[in-house]
Amino acid sequence: MSNGIGNGNPNGSGGASGGSRWFEQPPKPLPTRPQSKGPDKDLWLRCPSCAEILYRPVLAERGQVCPHCGHHFRIEASARVALLADPGSFVVHDDHLGPGDPLEFSDAKPYHKRLIDTQKKLGVLDAFLSGSCTIDGLPVELGVFDFRFMGGSMGSVVGEKVTRVFERATERRCPAIVVSASGGARMQEGILSLMQMAKSCAALAKLRDEAGQPYISVLTDPTTGGVAASFAMLGDLIFAEPNALIGFAGPRVIQQTIGENLPEGFQTSEYLLAHGMVDLIVPRNELRATLAESLRWLVESRPVAVGEAR
Ligand SMILES: [Zn+2]
User: Which of 117, 141, 238, 303 is deepest in the core (most CB within 10 A)?
Assistant: First the structure.
């Protein structure tokens, strides 16, 4: 013990393993523990607004709204329908419609391959879910964008399904609701995607002219491009979720085009409400009740044509 380094042996003469000092002994293997996989990343996520860590099942129970700050996460189309439609009332239409690839378009990946991969991953054929349902007992035609499917882009199938929402509402003489979440027209389908804007708006005009029924547009994050430039901004009432991105082109493109600095947050629900482009900002947990109340008011205050049963 003259060197002042303890060896763990009170006799100071080496251990039982042949007298070698402890630091000369081969390292013993550490006791093994069960391999930890770490936290399951799929179960937790960080709120981009308040940075709180959120448990996904709790978030799902709350309609994908942060319980701490009220941030509205994007929500799947089927979950949106579950939040809005009366339980068991939703009858899906047109879910057999799948997109073609008329231009045989290819960018980083061929369009048809991109479609097949997305369809397999999500289990749906395109970015729009539509059907008939009741909301608080009122019959409506409901359509919901699914942003997960190629950014909710509107190609020929999405446009056709939107059009059919309006056509069915005209036929059934009931209101229509479309909940938008879209990056705009699907450029992989070129002009065929652009013509969906005119087609869907023409069907909407018939809903008003022939059936005299209202259409409520619900704008969610994000509603942009060709969707914002067509039926999404043509609601008899236009609702928006809090803090949703709503606009036609991105800020940089606008800034370069008009050569002026743009106001802060000019493409948010709140800014559009303040400037008269949106009628009401409705938090997700109030959307169903607000839609029901508004529809009742719109339908019951509607003038009735001679000989028409209300
Ligand atoms: Zn939050």
Answer: 141
